[in-house]
Amino acid sequence: MQKLVVGIDLGGTKMAGALVDSAGNLVGPILKVPTPAHDGRAAMLDAIAELAGKVIAAGTANSGEWTIAGVGIGTAGVVDVTSGSIVASTDAISEWAGTQVREGVGQRLKEAGYNVPIHVENDVDAHAGGEAWLGAGRGARCAIVVAVGTGVGGAVVIDGQTWRGTHHLAGDLGHFPAVGAQGEPCTCGRFGHLEAVSAGPQIYRRYLALGGDAQVSGTRELETRAEAGDELAAQVYRDSAQALANVLVGLAYTLDPDCIIISGGLANAGKCWWGPLQETFKAQLSGPLENLELVSAQLGSTAPIVGAARGAWQLINAAN
């Protein structure tokens, strides 16, 4: 009988889940439900367990004979993978810090008849795990994955294992001090961090702060203007890309990776962002690193589901 795990991607507004086999293939549909991000811990844990149950039920209807072997969860926040708990959270999910996710979801699933191991990790780590396993980092010994969207996150995968760090923050490059970010307010309350100039909302904020047209509705319209030749719009995209490129150069010389993978909403941006990103990055590399490329992620929104499932499979295999 085939064994499958449930992979869940938990975001601030929605969560998505699917069954995943040991080769990383999605089995059955991806199910999506709203995240009760501001309804408290119990509501969140209930929602995660309910989604897992729905994914299992959908698989029962569509996937032949199989058994559920585990659940992998990629969630926003700083995660202690050993305990499956949230060390620190973002504003996206209220009261999430301190939550024992593995214990809470595990108990709820046990009550529903599923006594299986639960793996919990940060959502960007899960995204990186998916890309390193089956996406743009497939076959790489060392892959750096950068997620640039509403925030800036990152993760490092070495020899198939996500490097977490002592404080569970390895790869969290959004709070690197960045050239060009001096005096810019970061979402963490400090100044001068990469996220303050490179995250999508911050690009838009800087455009308005520099005297941009208040009628511009958001980053999509702003990107269109930048591509069409609006100099101020192009400047804030250029500033974003150059600040990120400088940080990535530092990571390249520190870790000497096989590849650096760019994911998130800005990975879909046009030449106004990718052009200065690539140019600034390449201009500072020398010797053997001259051939190191920045590449786009390949798995899209399925990456964190697959990556969370990968963590669950590793947990299951380690126990056998």
UniProtKB/TrEMBL annotation:
InterPro entries xref list: ATPase_NBD, ROK, ROK_cs
Protein name: Glucokinase
Gene3D superfamilies, alphabetized: 3.30.420.40
Domain of life: Bacteria
Family label: Belongs to the ROK (NagC/XylR) family.
Species the sequence originates in: Actinomyces graevenitzii C83
One matching Pfam family: ROK
